[in-house]
Predict the structure.
Amino acid sequence: MSTRKVAIIVSKGGMDEVYPSLILASGARQSGIDVAMFFTFYGLDAITEDKVDHLHVNMTGNASSPMPTVVAGLPGMEAVAAKMMKKQLDDLEIPPVREMIEMIADMGGEVYACELAMKMFKLERDDLIRQVKGVLTVGDFYGVSEGAQIIYT
Amino acid sequence: MAESREDIARLEQKLDALSAQVQDLHRTQQMLASLYEDMVPVATTALHSASVRLAELEQKGYFDFAKESMHVLDEVVQGFSPDDVHALAENIVGILGAVKRATQPEVLAFAEHTADVLEGEAARKPKGIVSMLRQGTKDENVRRGLAVAFEALRQVGKAANPALRVRHRSFGAALAAHEVHAPAAPAAGAPEPAPAAASAPVAAATLAGLDLDAEGFLLTPEDWTEAFAEQAAAEAGVTLTQTHWDVLRFVRAEYFAAHGAPNIRRITVGAGIPTKDLFALFPRAPAKTAARLAGVKKPVGCI
């Protein structure tokens, strides 16, 4: 059997921005495709212990959102939108972000953090969830993702 | 004597009128104060987070950046043409009127009161937005405040670009179109009512004497035999153990319990077998392989 491989870069930390990558990754593993996930910049929120359970959804500047931008910009709106989205995902039996990442790791998907972004946000290895397999530079990433199709989100 | 009584009567009248005025003023002030009180928790939270953000920004040197942007502001000011200034002069009376209204005693008193309350509120711990909402919706004053805020937003909306309203209409149309399509979508999780069988069942191949579909799944799940599972397992390079059989029986039970073929998460939770082990039992694609060996349809869904 061919050993197809994908490398998924997650650079944003909104709940709506993280889920598609996680679903791609878990779907790939279940289709026999190898997966490496590389979390960088705000994407690090999704693998940061203190933040992974509190990802928000930013509705401002979203042309597809039913919510007018003036309302979407009110304080606390990201949390409200995230709560609504969580409920919808829950109804579809889609697990929370933390559980999705655990699943991906259990399926043999590899989870990596970006070294530069960690320095930028003053994060230590201990601040990240335990599923993180390593902290990579961009060069390391290209090593890990050799022969993979790279998906940037 | 009579004269002085008359004086007193007149004085009383004046006092009455004055007290009515004072009461009026007091009422206005109370209304403003109650509106303010409703806004304070929100404002406190906002201020708190704003000060934290500002401190962060300062660290990152954003304010140096801001200094630089003062030049830009200069340019903007210099960019005013004589016409603009003329237009400003024409409107200055209106602007001054607004300023004058804003400096009326009631408003100033409100502002002063505001400062007092703010001092008290600052000592309180900011509440989360949800608990605030929960409390707030029970409070009549907050509801009144919200009504005022919404009215203000409505006015802002009215004044906004009519294009916005056009967009809303088209969104509504899109929503309506979506609702028309929605019932046509198959019920999530339900086993497929075998549409292929209804039209023309085409066996792409056979295994253990049973017909398969194009993807190698058993055409009729009811026909499944253990011999089929063993042959399909051999094809997939799997040697069936007791745990394998447990998974296959769970998958079949789930499928016929009208849930459809279970995804990997449902197998993990339902059969109590960790995801890692499932990948060891059924290499590469556990849910799909288990479904094939169990003789049920391919699992649908993204998880």
Remarks:
- The CA atoms of residues 94 and 100 of chain A lie 8 Å apart.
- The domain at 5-152 of chain A is CATH 3.40.1260.10 (Hypothetical Protein Ychn; Chain: A,).
- Chain A has one domain: 5-152.
- The helical segments of chain A are 15-30, 69-72, 77-91, 97-106, 115-120, 138-144.
